[in-house]
What does this fold into?
Amino acid sequence: MSLMESFEEVESCWRDLADVLAAGISRILLYGPSGTGKTYAALHHGVGNNPAERLVCTEDLTSGEITGTWMPVGENRWEWREGPAIRAWRGLGGRLVVDEVDRASGDALSTLLAMTDSPESARWRNPETCEWVRPGPQFSVVMTTNIDDLDDIAPSLRDRFPVSIRIDRPHVSALASLSEDLRASALAGSLGPAHRRVSLRSFYAFDELRRRLGPHRAAYLVFGEDTATSVLDALAIASIT
Ligand SMILES: Nc1ncnc2c1ncn2[C@@H]1O[C@H](COP(=O)(O)OP(=O)(O)OP(=O)(O)O)[C@@H](O)[C@H]1O
Ligand SMILES: [Mg+2]
It folds into this structure.
């Protein structure tokens, strides 16, 4: 495949995401290899004026970190601090990003189910004010995961997300933020087979580091011995063509 064809293909999964967002789908799951820009897209694409709220799931995530907790505010006084999911519910065009969603379990998973439920069913009561809160009309959730087998995600959670898009390559704007001579290699690296894939993050680090340390040392530090040689060769070829 020529470089131009690759660049055209760059758009495919990203075009799917843009089309689905433009169609007003408000529950989307992005999955696929690491470092392709899933979280970045979830935080920025189709988001209104308010910054998106982000949750990163771990085995230790508590439901308090999702909906909120009591916080001490002076002697014998406690206040309820609403968590990211409720802030996103309330936000104008609010977006909740739930990263590493395959790791959610227990109480946190139950709370996520409640927070991502259909707009007609979802509601939550503030324990301090007893106010009932519902998701705003523009509320959207984008979940991300690295796993390729979506069966590893709790079926009840997956069921709330009718559209899943496999993000397998960086967005053109992500490539454009690299120095020009690195873009083709970064694209090729992200399209390689799993065991040889090189993430965008490595290319960002290499781009930065080579300014101080020169390309050879930077390549060995970032890519490791085996991959460094092929990256440096590709850059040398690109510079003479
Ligand atoms: N469109 C973009 N413009 C500029 N930088 C970007 C863009 N997309 C991604 N990046 C940068 O690329 C890096 C990887 O992106 P991100 O963290 O979104 O990947 P990911 O797919 O969520 O990876 P993981 O699966 O490991 O969580 C980050 O440093 C991010 O800021
Ligand atoms: Mg991510």
User: Anything to note?
Assistant: The beta strands are 27-31, 53-56, 68-72, 78-82, 95-99, 124-125, 132-133, 140-145, 163-166. The mean pLDDT is 91. The longest strand covers residues 140-145.
